[in-house]
Amino acid sequence: MRDESYCQLLKQLTANTSSKPDSCQRGWRLLYILTAYHRCSEVLKPFLLKYLQQASRSAGAQYQGIAKACEQNLKKTFLYGGRIVPPNSMELKAMMAGRSSKRQLFLFPGGIERHVKIKTCTVALEVIEELCYEMGLHTLEAMEEYAIFLVTNKGQNVRPLNKNEYILDVATEAESVDSGYSVWFRRVVWTQPLRFENELCIAMQYNQILPDYRKGLLNVLSHGKVSNQQFHQISKLAALQHRAKDIIYTPSIHELSEYIPAPLFKKQPPQQWVTMATQHMQQVQPLSPHQARAQFLGLVSAFPMFGSSFFYIHSSSSTTFYAPCILAVNPRGLHFLHKNTHELMAAVPIVEVQSSRTQRPSAGTSYPYVDLTVGDMNTQRVIQLQLEQGLELCRVIAMQVENMMSVREKRHTMPPSEITML
């Protein structure tokens, strides 16, 4: 049926003699929609591509532009599977009027806004590449560490997008559920070294890390004790946050209480924090806000839980740790932390995570479950976790596992120079 539809359209577009002036134009626009949604058979594919290529390269041809767009749509449909969600009335009217793109808002951490031109067949991977290029990141390894999230219900539902998902499919579905939806851009994996040249890149990562630092999630204190060196480090980090806001005067007690994690702020009198922060303000005063953010990232990147994604676990079937607790996911594995002290209770190396899948809430419960299968090939056990962001947790774990496998493959692959020498 798909091949038949393509053949009927090509027949209409070839030597069109219709008395209707827009017959050929409407045929091309319908073909544009068809190539975005449906593959043809492998038998028809070379002939269809040749037809579109000839139409797009014929000198003086009236429909060169749309023919080229149809060819690109078809190639993407074979690569990514094709659009799934039917276009809404607004998109359909735009396509039939010859308009094939819209500007979509993507939110970086800290409320930084970026508008990206989205075409009919733009997928999440292409948006990630474009935003990474703007941040000065050009390698595939760097781009693989970022993801796009669909956020609905005022931030209550966060769904990570697969990199092959069509942005307009996602937007069309989201609009029908929540007209106030938003799309976030975040870094998920933190194995690549920090880059300090690009201001947007530093601002994005600083804004993403800052809330977790202020909650006291990045540093684990042994038995709740703070050394004199740690007091000075925390004071310097407070001064850097103050300078990052382009402020040069000494921070107040109220401001310091925002900059310093609450469990740590209580460890000494407020006035002592002011005295220590004042000393560090003199050192950081010559820095620009960008340099202050970069220094802050450089210091906290050495913290044990830097680069983790954090999830609040309401309950668990495990007997090796207590819930409620906090789960930190990073390249080293899954770390279950005490909800108050953030001390490590249990850990599962990422190599031992065999699978993760979401389960619907059971009767009488409000949050979904995630079943984690962990262990080696001989001995495995299932840990059931109850949390709000189950789908997000599964996607984050998947990205960490994919990153681990990618690193392993590179270790077993010889560089071209060595192959040449052999």
TrEMBL record:
<comment type="similarity">
    <text>Belongs to the TRAFAC class myosin-kinesin ATPase superfamily. Myosin family.</text>
</comment>
<feature type="domain" description="FERM">
    <location>
        <begin position="101"/>
        <end position="422"/>
    </location>
</feature>
<dbReference type="Pfam" id="PF00373">
    <property type="entry name" value="FERM_M"/>
</dbReference>
<keyword id="KW-0677">Repeat</keyword>
<dbReference type="InterPro" id="IPR038185">
    <property type="entry name" value="MyTH4_dom_sf"/>
</dbReference>
<dbReference type="Pfam" id="PF00784">
    <property type="entry name" value="MyTH4"/>
</dbReference>
<dbReference type="InterPro" id="IPR019748">
    <property type="entry name" value="FERM_central"/>
</dbReference>
<feature type="domain" description="MyTH4">
    <location>
        <begin position="1"/>
        <end position="96"/>
    </location>
</feature>
<protein>
    <submittedName>
        <fullName>Unconventional myosin-XV</fullName>
    </submittedName>
</protein>
<dbReference type="InterPro" id="IPR011993">
    <property type="entry name" value="PH-like_dom_sf"/>
</dbReference>
<dbReference type="InterPro" id="IPR000857">
    <property type="entry name" value="MyTH4_dom"/>
</dbReference>
<dbReference type="InterPro" id="IPR035963">
    <property type="entry name" value="FERM_2"/>
</dbReference>
<keyword id="KW-0009">Actin-binding</keyword>
<dbReference type="InterPro" id="IPR051567">
    <property type="entry name" value="Unconventional_Myosin_ATPase"/>
</dbReference>
<dbReference type="InterPro" id="IPR000299">
    <property type="entry name" value="FERM_domain"/>
</dbReference>
<dbReference type="InterPro" id="IPR029071">
    <property type="entry name" value="Ubiquitin-like_domsf"/>
</dbReference>
<keyword id="KW-0963">Cytoplasm</keyword>
